[in-house]
Design brief:
It contains 5 helices and 11 strands; from the N terminus they run βαβαββββαβαβββαβ. The chain is an alpha/beta fold.
Length: 228
């Protein structure tokens, strides 16, 4: 019915850099095919910043990694991402196995986002449980520059598989972090249904559909659909 009526309007959607790298292009294509009269505004930022923007009504919906207490948002668990130790194959000390526990990474120099990043909070919490600090040598909050530093051999990083979606050049080694608690949930969060415009409701449905299609088709590295 919405397609027949040529649904129009404007919708703003926020994603973290690694999420946008894998989900952004197919989402834009799907929106252009299904709702060509809806003007799409994509915002790339850290998950915490995106949550603040939804709270300030600057975004209609976003893919977040954690929720803030007391918010009246509409939330749909989308998927869960495994994390990987990513490095050049010649990185000194790199484990030879296909999987490694976080506590066994040892003194490998790591390039990670700062503490403001949701992923860093997950890693810090896991390291605290093992009582073994990570050997962080550089903090970079931009994904593109972070991956450039990894490719330059400055150190390894710990990221979801989506971080290599834009990778160009020599192949990188991906070693899965085996700890069951070291995972990154992806939540589709929007303004409450009574605040979301028809264009926003349409975009939310398309975003959820495209994300699930990518995981089912194994085009989202390291991702599994939420059990629900």
């Amino acid at each position: 019915a919405a397609r027949t009526a040529r649904l129009s309007g404007h919708v703003s959607v926020g994603m973290a850099p690694s999420t946008l790298a894998v989900l952004g292009p197919p989402f834009m294509v799907a929106m252009r095919e299904r709702y060509p009269d809806i003007r799409l505004h994509l915002v790339e930022s850290l998950s915490g910043n995106l949550a603040s923007m939804i709270g300030a009504r600057q975004l209609d919906l976003a893919v977040l990694f954690q929720l803030e207490a007391g918010q009246r948002w509409s939330t749909t668990p989308l998927l869960e991402e495994r994390l990987f130790l990513i490095a050049r194959p010649d990185q000194p000390g790199l484990p030879a196995a296909n999987a490694v526990r976080l506590e066994d990474i040892g003194d490998i120099p790591l390039i990670l986002p700062s503490s403001a990043h949701g992923l860093r909070a997950v890693l810090n919490a896991a390291a605290a449980r093992h009582q073994r600090a990570l050997n962080v040598v550089v903090e970079i909050d931009g994904l593109a520059v972070l991956m450039d530093a990894v490719r330059a051999g400055i150190g390894a990083t710990i990221q979801p598989g989506a971080a290599v979606a834009r990778h160009l050049g020599d192949p990188l080694a991906l070693i899965e972090i085996a700890d069951a608690s070291v995972r990154r949930p992806n939540l589709l969060v929007s303004l409450s249904d009574d605040e979301l415009s028809p264009a926003g409701l349409a975009a939310r449905g398309v975003l959820e559909s495209v994300a699930r299609q990518l995981v089912t088709a194994e085009r989202w590295p390291g991702a599994t659909l939420h059990k629900s």
